[in-house]
Amino acid sequence: MRAVDLVKDLLKGTSVFLIGMMGAGKTTVGNLLATELGYRFFDTDSLIEKVAGKTIKEIFADDGEESFRELEALVLSDLSAYTKLVVATGGGIVLRQMNWSYLRHGLVIWLDASVEVLVERLQDDTTRPLLQTADPVSALQKLLNRRRNLYAQADLHIQISTNDTPDAIAARIIAEIPTVLKNPKYPLD
Ligand SMILES: Nc1ncnc2c1ncn2[C@@H]1O[C@H](COP(=O)(O)OP(=O)(O)O)[C@@H](O)[C@H]1O
Ligand SMILES: O=C(O)C1=C[C@@H](OP(=O)(O)O)[C@@H](O)[C@H](O)C1
Ligand SMILES: [Mg+2]
């Protein structure tokens, strides 16, 4: 049996939620993973932009972060009603305790990249309002310090190194899902 077929068998349509810091690759890897699993892919940030009719940057600037977080919770609660989804979340989704009740509808996977990797990827990014500061490196470090314990509540922890390609990370997720989901056909596994 191919690894991905075993995983489909184990998941039985359960959705997958990717959490982790900005730049960890949730959007990029989520897309690939959905294709592999034959699931639909959604990104909470893209849905928020559709609902609001403006970009994340504009929402932060016009309405503030709290307003963005309200929309984020709303979009996540809607998505949690469905099965067979891979959902790439925004890095701050873990902050609201209520969001965990939605995330727990699926399998929660933490993509964990170091601040060095995140900085390398996001140094020229202008779309993430929380990084538009004089010192984005320390902004990322502070966010990670504040959020690490929340990300650690995920069902599966995927550590990402500098040279891991998106394809390799998607393959690793598929290889590691069986370590956290029991196979009911082999209850003594
Ligand atoms: N494994 C990877 N290797 C190299 N670059 C990556 C990798 N994953 C994502 N990226 C790049 O890093 C940036 C952030 O990725 P993205 O998927 O948007 O992360 P997130 O959704 O977690 O913020 C994008 O420019 C993307 O192309
Ligand atoms: O970490 C955060 O608080 C945020 C992460 C972003 O999404 P990505 O994690 O996809 O970059 C986006 O939701 C917003 O800029 C806030
Ligand atoms: Mg993203």
From TrEMBL:
Pfam families, per database record: SKI
InterPro entries noted in UniProt: P-loop_NTPase, Shikimate/glucono_kinase, Shikimate_kinase/TSH1, Shikimate_kinase_CS
Keyword check for Calcium: no
The entry's keywords: Amino-acid biosynthesis, Aromatic amino acid biosynthesis, ATP-binding, Cytoplasm, Kinase, Magnesium, Metal-binding, Nucleotide-binding, Transferase
Biological pathway: Metabolic intermediate biosynthesis; chorismate biosynthesis; chorismate from D-erythrose 4-phosphate and phosphoenolpyruvate: step 5/7
Gene Ontology biological process terms, A to Z: amino acid biosynthetic process; aromatic amino acid family biosynthetic process; chorismate biosynthetic process
Cellular localisation: Cytoplasm
Entry-linked PROSITE patterns: SHIKIMATE_KINASE
Chain sites annotated for binding ATP: 23-28, 128
Enzyme Commission number(s): 2.7.1.71
UniProt: substrate binding residues: 45, 69, 91, 147
GO CC, alphabetical: cytosol
Recorded GO MF terms: ATP binding; magnesium ion binding; shikimate kinase activity
Residues annotated as binding Mg(2+): 27
Catalytic activity: shikimate + ATP = 3-phosphoshikimate + ADP + H(+)
Listed cofactors: Mg(2+)
Cofactor remark from the record: Binds 1 Mg(2+) ion per subunit.
Main localization category: cytoplasm
PANTHER family hit by this protein: SHIKIMATE KINASE, SHIKIMATE KINASE 1, CHLOROPLASTIC
Family affiliation: Belongs to the shikimate kinase family.
Complex formation: Monomer.
Designated name of the protein: Shikimate kinase
Lineage, top ranks: Bacteria, Bacillati, Cyanobacteriota, Cyanophyceae, Coleofasciculales
